Amino acid sequence: MHRRHLIKGFVAQGACLICAAAARADGAHWGYTGQVGPEHWADLDRKNFVCSAGTQQSPVDITDAVKADMPRIAIDWHKGRRKMVNNGHTIQVNMPEGSTLTRGDRTFELIQFHFHAPSEHRIAGKSFPMEAHFVHKDTTSENLGVLGVFLTPGATNVSFADLAAVFPPQPGAEMAVEIDPRGLLPASLSYWTYEGSLTTPPCTENVEWMLAKQPVEVDAAHIDRFAALYPQNARPIRSANRRFILGFD
Q: Is 89 a catalytic residue?
């Protein structure tokens, strides 16, 4: 019981910081290897307590999903000139107000999107070369809705090519870029969903994950361009802990 109250306390504390944590690099030094790697995140800062003590951590391996009748995802993202940042952990594009994802009667506003290599989530044990995370905030609460899209080598994707051409090479560097984020979406928005967490510190457990079933093809050379900057920025798979993973066709 004491452990549960501690977790809830840290979750509540993390909730007020959630947008800042999702939108930029935190002040605490953390990474993906060695003594600052994922298995040590909880030791680096008391705010990261949930990284080790949480029971709904992400990412997970999507297996044995339950087919369910769930709301369709509707996307209303806007193209325009945006700020792309190398935040020391990934390449991230920050979005102004106005771009939304709707799921049933809930609306989420797109805050930013960023990339991981290799993919953080897996499908029946299979990993993909990259995964894009479109981070949204629920317009009526502190909860987040993250749409994950797997990227795989294939045909050139114009939106990803536009980003790859000007990836900021150094941590802290930024670049203005004209981008249509809708170009990074698959043709089908059938998806899996589950309740989880941020995959970076403070690992707050208030994320509704939506993972597109259909990957998006991007030029292999552009994947290599990202991997040259961040060859491994994926958190290892966490236990599902009997959580239901639902699938919508």
A: yes
